[in-house]
């Protein structure tokens, strides 16, 4: 096969992979990936995120970022991840280039301070400052717009 044909095929494959990468935004019909959230109580949400494309683990980034947006939008400064679950789908023989997608589910409680409520002590919850999450993840979110 001529060299320029191989180069063109590799370039097209790269463009196809890039076109499949999930952008940050709500999940909707006809869009692969995105986030969704469900209010469970006055200060608690379930945040779900799914992503496809290269093996960069974008779903956890989307889920944390969305949890931070919800927290700040409701007037709280911190959120507590009380439950986290997720999976990564691989296609092929374990090569990172054969990555198909990942999905994350977080259950979060919005808080006004950094004190972990006694009901969660011992369950190893993770407390995040929402504004810090936004600041740290913003470049990765912007790169996917």
Structural account:
With 145 residues, this protein is of the alpha+beta class. The chain has one domain (3-143). The protein contains three helices and five strands; from the N terminus they run H-E-E-H-E-E-E-H. It has helices spanning 3-20, 58-73, 130-143, and strands at residues 34-41, 44-52, 78-90, 99-111, 126-129. Strands 1-2-4-3-5 form a five-stranded antiparallel β-sheet. Strand 1 (34-41) and strand 2 (44-52) form a beta hairpin. Helix 2 packs across helix 3 (130-143). The longest helix is centred in the first third of the chain and has 18 residues, at 3-20. It is globular and about 40 Å long. It starts with a helix and ends with a helix.
Question: Quick gist of this model?
Answer:
The chain has 145 residues and is α+β, with helices and mostly antiparallel strands. It is built from three helices and five strands, in the order αββαβββα.
Give the SSE layout.
Layout: H1 3-20, E1 34-41, E2 44-52, H2 58-73, E3 78-90, E4 99-111, E5 126-129, H3 130-143
Antiparallel strand pairs: 1-2, 2-4, 3-4, 3-5
Helix pairs in contact: 2-3
